[in-house]
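Quick one, probably user error.
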């Protein structure tokens, strides 16, 4: 029996060691109260959301998004995460990874869109995002200052098209 790509991803999403769809939330020193998984969904009534899944299948929060979300960057030391728009979306939302409180919303600069992914540098001071130029399709890496309201500091060439 041959599985479709979607069926394969759905099966992998259930495995804690091979999950391409969900991002594991950072462990905390607050009694383990942080959600174990973060994921994006579209609900019939509430629309697009970033949601948490805790131990035992509980959902501690759902955060409304302006459009479909894709993936997350989880801060290495703080209870902070960023959800990125599904490409070619232009929004990113920073939130408290335990409570779901929205902390900041920022957009890709003009003529850019997020490619759905990003990561924090090991110090947690910088957020690096995968981005594309709308006019040429060139991939870039955006470098943002976390403690300066996600101010874009630099852009580095991605040396290709469609970073993901």
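Nope, works fine. Designed sequence:
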């Amino acid at each position: 029996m041959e599985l479709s790509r979607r069926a394969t991803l759905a099966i992998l999403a259930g495995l804690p060691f091979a999950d391409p769809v969900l991002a594991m939330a950072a462990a905390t020193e607050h009694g383990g109260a942080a959600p174990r998984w973060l994921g994006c969904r579209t609900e019939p009534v509430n629309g697009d959301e970033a949601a948490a899944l805790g131990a035992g299948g509980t959902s501690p929060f759902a955060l409304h998004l302006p459009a479909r979300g894709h993936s997350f960057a989880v801060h290495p030391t703080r209870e902070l995460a960023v959800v990125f728009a599904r490409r070619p979306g232009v929004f990113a939302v920073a939130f408290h990874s335990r409570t779901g409180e929205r902390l900041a919303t920022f957009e890709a600069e003009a003529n850019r869109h997020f490619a759905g992914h990003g990561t924090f540098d090991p110090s947690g001071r910088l957020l690096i995002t995968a981005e594309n130029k709308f006019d040429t399709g060139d991939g870039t890496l955006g470098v943002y200052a976390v403690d300066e309201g996600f101010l874009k500091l630099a852009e580095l060439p991605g040396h290709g098209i469609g970073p993901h």
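DSSP finds one helix and twelve strands in the chain.
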